[in-house]
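Hi V.,

You were right to ask for the full record rather than a summary. Here it is.
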Amino acid sequence: MKSKTSCFNRTIFKKNLTHYWPLWVAYLGFMFLIGPFNIWQSATTEWYFDNYNETSRMHEIMYRAVNMMMEPITIFVFAGAVALAVFSYLYSAKNANMMHALPVNRLELYVTNYLSGLSFLVIPQIIVFFVSVLVCLANEITCIQYLFLGLLCQLGLSFFAYSLAVFVAMFTGQLLAMPVYYLVLNYLYVGCLYIVNSVMELLTYGVTERWNPGKSCILSPLYYLNNNLWVKQNYARELDTITGIEIKGVHLVAIYAFAAVFITVIAYQVYRKRQIETAGDWISVGFVKPLFRWGVAFCGGILLSLTFTSILREAHSLNAYACTVFCMIVTGFICFFAAEMLLRKNFRVFKKKRFIEWAGFTVVAVLFLTLFEVDAFGIERSMPQEDEIVAAFVNMDYPIEVKKEDIPQLLELQHDAIAGKKEYQKIEQEGHGYYYTTFRYYLKDGSMFERRYPIPVTEEYVENETSPAAKILAWERKPENLKSYILGTNYDTNQYISGYIDLYNEDNEYRNYMFSEAETKALEEAVEKDIEEGNYAAYYLYSVAGDEQERYYNNISFDYYNRNGYHDIWDYYANYNGYYDTEKTQMVMEYVSQANSYITFGPECEYTIKALEELGITDDTWKLCTNSEYYD
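Predicted structure:
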């Protein structure tokens, strides 16, 4: 009779359960703390009864509990610890030989250890779910369906996180290396994107410091889940009630759980071919060793070279490309052979074969940097098409929303900035005579396109009416743009309530003068008249402003209400898409309706100064004084 092959060994399972009980007991205790205990504590706290109606109270308590129970970091940490424990025999030659000498095949060992580790996560989650349901019912909390949905997400995340940890465990024979590799793998893709982005910012003219990795970062699981898996409260604003909660990113859990099936199978294939003798090695799979050397050399070398380049360029006016290439050769060499030392576990690694490999790596690394320096990908030259643009902004001294009819002119200005690359970069290296200016476009597909250039603002360029500096300054001097900057984007419907000014006498004594409503109105009209006359431009166009010491040390503040909501130009510029999201716009109109303007002015603001004198706010004792007068 043919003997039956088993894929599961009860003895090993029981050994894991009893030997590693502190792990699953700790996880069970932690889950009890953030689940049933948290729900019971919230349900019996008077604060929830005093500040919420019954419906809102139930959903607020459930929101807190589900949000904590689904935290990806917690699940990934425990999953990594469990995988490290049940497969720890792979990291000791003695234990590895002993386990593989038992009358069990590798499939049986793998499946038993895999299932025992997974049970350390799943069983506590299921137990906590049922106990949480009982606690909810005992406290008359009926929306327990969210606990079930949260449990499904927990199980999916645990399956993926544990499978990924087991997969990583198969590639190393070092106990300490496994958690490091596990962390690195969870952030590897987004880390590589960050490196590419950093190189692009340094070597590609016009590319701004804006980090937006996008949906492709699903390949960095923990990073992506932390940013895209969350619990949202649903409100009925007219009733001021929380009507339910919603788990955003459930589809991601399903995707990762599906991927976990393949990861588990691949991990077994690696385990099946793994050599027992690799116990103690940093990498246990032969074909991964060159990838390890190159990966450490590239990632470590680039990061170190960017750091050293940044430090050196602060002290000296060095060419970014030449400095980065030099640093990359040095730091790449160090990282490459440091990785080889780890693999060989000794310092005798400087051999001809490795020098040839390092030389090959260096050529590839320098080529990588050169591609960005020569703009091989056309990143510097790329510009959005006019028909793709929903809104356009230019920001030299302050953000300006460019009118629809002026967008072609803005695109032309950006084209001029690109064409003047060598000239502009030369002025930038001199360290003065330029001002960084941002061109930002919000596109129909919901994305944002941005470039930043060192626009020359010397007298020669400012007086040249065809230069980008002159044209941008002309936009900045327009009264409607200055009013949007100083008084808010909805300045024409502001209802001014009050305000104040700080005054000083000759003895440098301080007085805070509060305006009446009538005084506020009169001063606001004077400020607007000065803006119309162009008198405020001298104090807000910092790129070409005069001596800061000649501005008044005194500043005016206005408090006002706006029925259309307060839209600060900087926030509007940074979050343009948010202002056209129905929910966000509603929130802005209801809750951000009262604000204040803090106004800088100087001797050229004649109408403002005259109004302060006529209203008796300033006199021979309490005067306006410039910065230089105040400090003198």
